[in-house]
Specification:
Blueprint: H1 2-17, E1 24-28, E2 66-70, E3 74-81, E4 87-94, E5 109-110, E6 115-116, E7 126-134, E8 143-150, E9 157-167, E10 175-185, E11 196-199, E12 205-208, H2 210-215, H3 223-231, H4 259-277
Parallel strand pairs: 2-10
Antiparallel strand pairs: 1-3, 2-11, 3-8, 4-7, 4-9, 5-6, 9-10, 11-12
The protein binds copper (II) ion.
């Protein structure tokens, strides 16, 4: 009876939260989709109604944002993991925008999201792989990971930068996606000096974050790795065991509901009731 009650509450909670399946937010470079604080794309103007699961870039409302950056320069990549999963990230680039699903190949996976192939020496379209690696036990949310990637020297013009998250342990799908639209500027194109220029849908300059590419050089893009090696989980409350994410389909749901899961469900139900009352 307990389990039955729980199941009904859980199903209500899932129905109530819809497709809120946030896993990470792409902070830099700016996302091609409009996303909320959790990283979920908007769709049809409805916040969080899009998906991060759609290859190759997620699906939802376009932001129209373009990042102009010098070809061959160093680009700062910053994400916030908003659902705690073990795993790692891969950054890829193709010389076109928009990109098609066939332009990127998902890493080969063993078992049910047990492990994913990591390119030890990245070959295009892959720029960096195996970054921000951490175990499920180390996963905390929200957790910021950042690094610098070297853009291909010879690549100019429109480009799509894909940031892929591999999750383990996890049920399929094992990957979540976000992308940025880049405009790679050649030597005589008046490239911003060591920085990037973000241009909005109207073609106007939105921001000049010149500090981002050079400012982080000292760390060597290690905030992710240092976070996963030495520091460990900051707070227990930040942990979200994989089975506790109502947005995730998990392979084995045999585990008895934990207090944390009941908390998640409770919050979801509460918010749903709040919504209803309006
Ligand atoms: Cu998940």
């Amino acid at each position: 009876m307990r389990a039955g009650l729980f199941a009904s509450v859980l199903s209500v909670a899932i129905l109530g939260t819809g497709s809120a399946t946030a896993h990470f937010k792409l902070n830099e470079p700016v996302d091609i989709l409009v996303t909320n604080a959790l990283g979920d794309p908007a769709k049809g103007g409805v916040a969080g109604a899009g998906s991060q699961k759609t290859r190759p870039c997620g699906s939802g409302d376009a932001s129209g944002m373009v990042t102009k950056v010098a070809a061959g320069s160093t680009l700062h990549v910053k994400v916030t993991e908003t659902v705690g999963h073990g795993g790692h990230y891969r950054v890829s680039i193709v010389n076109k925008f928009p990109a098609a699903a066939a332009d990127f190949t998902d890493p080969a996976v063993t078992g049910v999201c047990q492990s994913a192939t990591i390119m030890a020496t990245p070959v295009l379209p892959v720029l960096a792989d195996g970054i921000f690696a951490h175990t499920q036990a180390q996963a905390t949310v929200p957790k910021v990971y950042e690094t610098d990637v070297k853009l291909p020297a010879g690549m100019t013009g429109p480009a799509t930068l894909q940031i892929l998250e591999f999750m383990t342990p996890h049920a399929a799908p094992c990957f979540y996606y976000h992308c940025a639209q880049l405009e790679l500027l050649g030597p005589d194109a008046g490239a911003p000096d060591g920085g990037v220029v973000v241009v909005g849908p109207d073609g106007g300059e939105v921001a000049d974050s010149g500090a981002s590419s050079s400012g982080s050089s000292g760390t060597g893009g290690s905030s992710g790795s240092s976070g996963s090696s030495g520091v460990g989980p900051e707070t227990g409350s930040g942990k979200l065991p994989q089975n506790n994410d109502s947005g995730c389909s998990t392979a084995t749901s045999s585990a008895t509901p934990s207090l944390a899961l009941m908390g998640v469900v409770g919050v979801a139900v509460a918010s749903m009731l709040r919504r209803r009352r309006r």
